[in-house]
Specification:
The complex is a heterodimer of chains A (245) and B (367).
Chain A: E1 3-14, E2 17-28, E3 32-36, H1 43-50, E4 58-63, E5 66-67, H2 73-82, E6 83-86, H3 98-109, H4 114-127, H5 144-155, E7 162-166, H6 174-191, E8 194-198, H7 202-208, E9 211-216, E10 219-224, H8 235-240
Parallel strand pairs in A: 3-8, 3-9, 6-7, 7-8
Antiparallel strand pairs in A: 1-2, 1-4, 4-5, 9-10
Helix pairs in contact in A: 3-4, 3-5, 4-5, 6-7
Chain B: E1 4-11, E2 14-23, H1 28-37, E3 45-56, H2 58-70, E4 73-76, H3 79-91, H4 106-135, H5 147-157, H6 162-187, H7 193-231, H8 234-240, H9 245-283, H10 288-298, H11 301-328, H12 334-364
Parallel strand pairs in B: 2-3, 3-4
Antiparallel strand pairs in B: 1-2
Helix pairs in contact in B: 2-3, 5-9, 6-7, 6-9, 7-9, 7-11, 7-12, 9-11, 11-12
Chain lengths: 245, 367
């Protein structure tokens, strides 16, 4: 299988606090890959490093074959069009309506006509399970679950091959969270996405993930499928997965 | 960049559109133009040939779908595109459409603007009413007064503003003196610079300059701080824990500014006069002793007090407008900027109106 993301020996230090000390992992094409670990272990930090929002002190990260240490600004820009990112609280632009939020990358990066953009927006809105009637609403007027869906629609607006999700189900009620899991699985199936996500939601982890990496004590303590996860020697794994027999 | 191309074949009544390459949202705009030039309705049969396509994304699939909707066409697919086309077919929302922006008439826009001003004024009055009716009774007992917060605010919004106020008023004194020195020299009325500066700076300029600097510096900070707290739901959290934001955030700021404003005006007086003395010395050859003697003679203490008395009133206006605007911040990031701007503009305007009222009142009272 082709490796979409490769992380080698990444070391991250905030001031004097070491967050990551030599992380290694690789994400294959078509996988739903989970980053797990106790809070404060730097899951979101690693995700932010993969999408070039955060610098790391040592090591290499390769995304879609491009090494982020040596990437040129043109390549970086090209790369940014090939992935979509969903932030924890949606991070929709509050001055734009949902329609304009989703349309923004299309307006900026392509020369499509207004009508065509409307068509695409309508399709994406429908795809993530929102209603076209709500498209004119602003982020401050919609619920948390809708914000997540709208954020997902925005992340998908350029048909990315790679999707990063930061705690996609946090802050959702259990029913919406399960719906969101199903949605993610469907989207992977339909669009052939590779998905990297940070999650705390145990149900969501079992339902969606193909492969996990567990970060604890600055290292990856386990990487692989969920069925063997208990073989990992980590206090976090023992408490977090204890319900699973 | 992926490339796709479109070949158009025309034979009798049949038009065939042969797409090849990677059809994506980057390329369909040019195809759309190409197709718009052909008058599709004149042909009896239209064939869309997708056999040479390598890959297709959802935007391009939508484009193909729309082509089919408008005309009766035959589609020749290959296995690579089938899935995407089917997906798009399944999830296209044909019934509903996106709401377009509503057109509003000029009258409606004007009406809305003025109505909003009216509503804004009423809600400010509501804030004032709330402040006076329910909150000032906290001050009756000294245990309710939060000395620590007041001291903190005194340092944040007054002491730290000393430098900029001193510098601004020094420069204003300098400029006013310099401009009037030129005129006074023509008449040989050099010594009257003292009367002029004493009256204008002590009565009007020092309080106004101080108020404007404080409105721009501390009033805007009040709005931004309280607005940010509102967005992060800190104010709601305080309320649920039984802490009244008025007691913790509003009153300390108002009290701190009202206490400190007269002192800041005093500093502005001193620095303004220093600027005047400097220019008088250099430009008009009036020694410092002569300046101060004349000052003592012609400027009565009441002029100083007129300026100082305005302080707490200006401070109250600036602080309450700043805080009111902070509380008006809604749940989005833009509204912080909007309300901060409003807070500065409105508080400077209110200060000037208040100053005009004082001016008329004091003159009529013969002060």
């Amino acid at each position: 299988m082709k490796h979409i993301i490769e992380v080698e020996g990444v070391r991250t230090v905030f001031d004097k606090r070491v967050v990551h000390d030599g992380l290694n992992l690789s994400v294959c094409e078509g996988e739903i890959y989970g980053l797990l670990g106790p809070s404060g272990c730097g899951k979101t930090t690693l995700l932010r490093e993969m999408v070039m929002l955060q610098k790391y002190q040592a090591g290499n990260i390769k995304v879609l074959g491009k090494n982020l240490n040596t990437i040129s600004s043109d390549d970086a820009q090209e790369l940014r069009r090939q992935w979509g990112v969903l932030f924890q609280a949606g991070a929709l632009f509050s001055s734009l309506s949902i329609r304009d939020n989703i349309a923004l990358p299309l307006v900026e990066y392509t020369d499509l006509s207004e009508n065509m953009i409307d068509e695409i927006v309508k399709f994406k809105i429908h795809l993530v399970g929102l209603k076209a009637q709500d498209a004119h609403l602003f982020p401050s007027q919609i619920s948390g679950g809708m914000k997540k869906k709208a954020g997902l629609a925005r992340a998908l607006s350029m048909d990315p091959k790679l999707l990063f999700l930061d705690e996609p189900t946090s802050g959702l009620d259990p029913i919406s969270a399960r719906e969101f899991d199903t949605l993610i699985l469907q989207l992977r199936e339909m669009l052939g996405l590779t998905i990297v996500m940070v999650s705390h939601d145990l149900q969501s982890i079992y339902d969606t993930l193909d492969k996990v990496a567990i970060i604890d004590e600055k290292k990856i303590v386990y990487e692989g499928s969920l069925s063997d996860v208990k073989s990992a020697k980590s206090a976090f794994v023992k408490t977090f997965f204890r319900e699973m027999k | 960049m992926k490339i796709s191309s479109l070949k158009v074949n025309i034979s009798d009544d049949t038009l065939s559109l042969v797409f090849s390459g990677d059809l994506s949202l980057y390329t369909i705009a040019s195809h759309q133009e190409q197709i718009a030039k052909l008058s599709l309705s004149t042909y009896k049969e239209i064939v869309i040939d997708l056999r040479l396509i390598n890959s297709i994304d959802t935007a391009a699939a939508l484009f193909i779908q729309n082509l089919q909707l408008e005309n009766s066409t035959t589609l020749i697919e290959n296995t690579k595109v089938q899935e995407t086309l089917a997906l798009v077919e399944k999830y296209t929302d044909k019934k509903s459409s996106l709401k377009k922006k509503e057109q509003r008439s000029f009258l409606e826009v004007v009406g809305k603007v003025f109505y909003n001003y009216y509503v804004g004024f009423i809600s400010f009055m509501e804030f004032m009413g709330l402040l006076f009716a329910t909150k000032f009774h906290y001050l009756k007992s000294s245990t309710n007064i939060r000395f620590k917060e007041i001291a903190f605010e005194i340092n944040e919004s007054a002491i730290k503003a000393l430098g900029i106020i001193a510098l601004t008023s020094f420069l204003i004194g300098l400029v006013v003196a310099y401009q009037s020195a030129f005129q006074l020299k023509i008449y040989g009325a050099n010594i009257f610079i003292v009367d002029m500066l004493g009256l204008s700076i002590l009565r009007e300029l020092a309080p106004l300059i101080t108020a404007i600097v404080i409105a721009g510096r501390s009033g805007s900070a009040f709005t931004a701080q309280i607005g940010a707290m509102k967005i992060t739901e800190e104010l709601d959290a305080m309320r649920t824990m039984g802490f009244d934001p008025y007691v913790f955030l509003v009153l300390p700021r108002i009290i701190a500014l009202m206490l400190m404003m007269p002192l800041l005006i005093f500093v502005a007086d001193i620095m303004g006069m220093l600027g005047g003395i400097l220019v008088a010395n250099i430009d008009l050859n009036i020694t410092t002793e002569l300046f101060l003697d004349r000052f003592n003679e012609v400027i009565a203490a009441k002029h100083f007090f007129v300026g100082i008395v305005k302080g707490p009133f200006f401070a109250f206006l600036i602080a309450s407008i700043g805080i009111y605007r902070g509380l008006k911040v809604k749940d989005d990031t833009q509204s912080i900027g909007f309300n901060t701007t409003k807070s500065v503009v409105e508080s400077i305007f209110a200060v000037i109106v208040c100053d005009a009222i004082f001016s008329i009142a004091f003159t009529n009272l013969g002060i």
